Each structure stands twice: as C-alpha cells, then as structure tokens.
Amino acid sequence: MKTSRALLTAAALAVVLPAGAARAEPDAAAPAVNEYVALGDSWAADATITQITTVFTPTPCVQSARNYAKQVAAALSVPVFRDATCGGAVTANMTAPQRTALGDNAPQFDRLTESTDLVTLEIGGNDADLAAVVGACVTFDPAATPCLDQMVVDGVDRMSQNIARTEPRVAAAIAGIRERAPHARILLLDYFEGIGLDGGCWPEIPISDADAIWLGRKLIEMHDMLARVADDTGVEFVDTYAGSAGHDACKPVGTRWVEGLLPYSGNPVGPAVPFHPNQLGADYQARRVLEALGA
Questions:
Q1: Is 183 a catalytic residue?
Q2: Which of 174, 224, 244, 268 is found 20 to 30 A from 237 (Cα to Cα)?
Q3: DSSP label of 19
C-alpha cells in the first residue's frame, strides 16, 4: 500500500510541478520526511487562475500546481504527499467537507494518518472574515473609510474580536492533527505582509490610506495570534510576515508577492486571484518552510 501511494505521489508531482519548480535533491542535513500533508486555506493553496491543479482537490479550491507545499514536497523528495489546501477553507473544514459547485473537498483531516510525519497548517483568515472584509474597503473616494466605519463602532474593533475568537479554533485544529497524526512534526504558518503600514496606493488599489493602514494592522494581529497559538500548543511557527516588508500589493510587478484588486498578475502572467500570493509569494513561503525544516 505504501509503495502504491509513493508511486502515485511521484506521478502526481511530475504532473503538477512544471519545469522550473523546486526539484532539488534534499540537503544531506535535511530531515527525512516520509509522509507530508498540507492543510489550509487559499494562502496555503496559493490560489491561482492560471496554474490550477485538480490532482488533490476540486477546481474551485483554486489550488496551485506550484504552491509552497508542492515545492517543499519536491525539494525534500517526499515519497507520500497529500495537499488538502482549498480556497475559502475555515477551521471547520478540517473535520467537515467543503462544499463547492464542482464537487466537495473532503474534510482536510481525512488526509492524515498515523504515519504522517510532517504537517503544514495555514488557516484562520477566513474564520476571522479578514479576507471577506477587504472588498468592503474599496472606495472611489480617497478620503472615505468604509472599513473603519463598518468595523470599528463605538471604539470596539470587530475585526480584533473576530481574530480573538479564531484563536481557540486554530488551537483546536492543532489538537485534531495531533490526535490523528501523533508522530507528525507540525508547522503553523502566518500570513505575510499583503498591505503595508505606510498607507495604500489609491487609485491603483482603491482603498484609502486610513483603511489600508487598518488592514495592515489586522494582519499583524493575525500574525501575533498565530504565533501565540504556536507557542501555547508547542508547534513550530513559520514566520512569513517577518522578511516580507516591501513586497506588498502596492509594489510593482516583480517586487510584489501578493496581487492587488486588479485580477491580473505578472508572476505568472495572466488572470489572478485578488489579494492573494502570486508565484513570487508562493516561492517565498516555500523558502521559509524549508528554512524552518533545516533544508
């Protein structure tokens, strides 16, 4: 059974990793990984339009053929690899199927087994509704603050409350991984800087400076929350936020690691998912994971 799965995984990686993707032989000091499972949402799937693969998940998951998990699996020559990541996923989709118009993504934990020895997890943004609120910030008035007006009422920041409510859900997801894969090394990733703290770039991205700064601070709150969960649960934290400054959506093609509102990317050239990592961002995530693994 293990041999069959290894052959299938090798074939799958050959299909989904085009020329130029990470295929390096593992470093002699790199840990041997036999069974790797990737879990998470669209930032883990590295949501794409031009590089969608359905090897592991349905089309609406918009999982990239060159996301960071596949690069890590290839770089470490992992014989058994399963990628459950799916755009729109929340922590509840770890144990419940994610319904899509073109088929369901099975509960992500279904890919875990007692022999799984590496798990990456990136989740929480959708639980907090952080991704959903970005669209509400769009305005044709550079002085308007629709996000602040909607989310900060009587001095209470509803997004901060959402992030706080998400914290025990992420911790519960880690407990669920441990229950199903007791021997796994677990890496929890955060979300890197998609919007800087120095304001936006209206009208290129039609979000006012005040709302852009607020969004940037919410990403830091997400980072702090996920770092705290990692510390409290004893898993390894992969800090992708540190080191990502200067690569936000306002930067030019070739420098930015995340796309803006315009659904078009220069890396790779073609349609893109707004406010999600492009290939440069996926490559950066892969580097940080491999660094954490000592590879």
A1: no
A2: 268
A3: T
